[in-house]
Design a protein that fits this description.
Strand order of the largest sheet: 1-2
Largest sheet: 2 strands, antiparallel
Number of strands: 2
Bound molecules: fe (ii) ion
Number of helices: 6
CATH architecture: Up-down Bundle
Number of domains: 1
Structural class: mainly alpha
Radius of gyration: 23 Å
CATH superfamily: Ferritin, core subunit, four-helix bundle
Amino acid sequence: MAKSSAKSAAKSTVKGGAPAPTKAASVGGSMGINIGIHERDRAAIAAGLSRVLADTYTLYLTTHNFHWNVTGPMFNTLHTMFMTQYTELWMAVDPIAERIRSLGHPAPGSYAQFGRLASVADAPAVPPKALEMVRILVQGHEAVARTARSLFPLADKAGDEPTADLLTQRLTVHEQAAWMLRSLLEA
Ligand SMILES: [Fe+2]
């Protein structure tokens, strides 16, 4: 067997005439991504999912904060309800981040990044009254729903079913949570 140079290897073909694997898929020892979604769409979807992640994480933290700080006659109901909700939000951040990774992009994971990316406001420094907490959480769930919904057409157009599926699941959760919280505000 003759040694082949990189140049001749690049030009060579596999027996049968099929093109040989090119070097393009491998950079620095890692493989490129070829899942059938254009690089430009992967980047845009990953950017959108980063905003969903930042919103979800921020809402998680606010909900946990309110679980700790809620007071008043509805304490038991809200303390328990907020725990259910923050636990769900906490579980949700992982699949969102890992979808970003599957699309070939780094997942944001710092308070500075989340602060830049989130449309959901940080929790107030002074704990509000119980019903104001509920109002803030309704607005938070609605905000995450809007962020997720705004990304849906792009995921759909790019044929990114896993992201569309994830967004559908998140929309269901946020719209249901907003309804349940909103119901507490009715006289
Ligand atoms: Fe607790």
